[in-house]
Amino acid sequence: MHHIKRRTIPFTSIVGQDDMKFALILNAINPRIGGVLIRGDKGTAKSTAVRALADLLENIPVVEDCPFNCNPGDPEEMCDLCFERSQKSQIREVLRRMPVIDLPLGATEDRVVGSLNVERAIKEGIKALEPGILAAANRGILYIDEVNLLDDHVADVLLDSAAMGVNIVEREGVSVAHPSKFILVGTMNPEEGELRPQLLDRFGLQVNVAGIEDVDQRVLIVKMAERFDADPEGFSRKQQPQQEELKEKISDAKKILPRVTISDDLLRSVALTCIDLGVKTHRAEIVISRTAKTIAALDGRHEVNREDLKKAMELALAHRMRSRPFEPPTLNRDRLEKSMEKQKQEPQHQSRKPPQQERQEQQPQDPENQQDSGQTQASQPQEMVFEIGSPIDMRQIKMPRKRDRVLRRKTNGRRMNTLATQRSGRYLRQRMPKEGTI
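The chain above was modelled as a monomer; its predicted structure follows.
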């Protein structure tokens, strides 16, 4: 069978869409960020950028002839078979490109997790597993185009594997497992529907892309596409110096990343901002911290600053903000800046009291204190209630109250016992009010 190589336009030749390219580069430096969801209109280079990212990724060491891309240097990232062979020093290490695996929308569950021959599995264990997409994506990138259209049962399998880093295949009481850690990268068009919140939270970052409004850039996109179609090899050669420069920058950032630190004050500021913005998931702070460190490493620094945090929050919080059903996840940048400024002005070394305790302490204990506090807070707007007139004196309406006889009305739709001697109500005539009652 002749293998057709897929040609992709070089990453550095993609015009505009800086946020999208930035988020993808951050994940290439630090896979622990957890991937990126790219939301945008059709024809905005979403799929093109993800596939072009593969050329920027460094080769990874894998166990030769292992379908799961097991890590020969870490027993925790080996399948059972590779672990047994490693104990006997029978594994060979080879370098292979980090895989970028496409997940087809119509893929069945067996195609994703792998198929298992039960009779063979009882005797041979993991050898009986026919590897699936999750096996091929281990230690690489799992790319899902139109992720919002994914079947629910396949999405559930992905959630389990993304959470545990292991793919477990169970059939007829027989269970086999293999490592499956991957960077989840998805693209979607919001016009075709939103994503489930549970799956949404699994993406480390989110970026929104839109059509470019600048005329010159749109013309440049057409020229780039025409040049690439006319001579893919020649076009790629011309872009090679820029590609190598970016690859070197990513490689340097990877070396710096383990030594990058973030202060406790900044971490506290992150947590307070997440609370202030109503972010419930605790994954937010973790992703923000990892992203901020990666941004600092990409800039060649060993210490995270507030600008790093702000950029990380813009990428990590938009899809984690509480929103109404069927509303697109958005992040108001002005609100984020105000919240960060508020946390910056507060003394970081003091421990904040719970909001409930603060409210209790702010409430006055007696009327004198209440009067004093009203004088001290005269500059603040106060709530005032205006009367709309004297209440009606119900005692003026004199009705006979006979409690000695309780009847059940026979009319349709009424089953409540009433204190009345008749089935019809009593008519009251109108009267003019007396002087002094208004």
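The longest strand covers residues 182-188.
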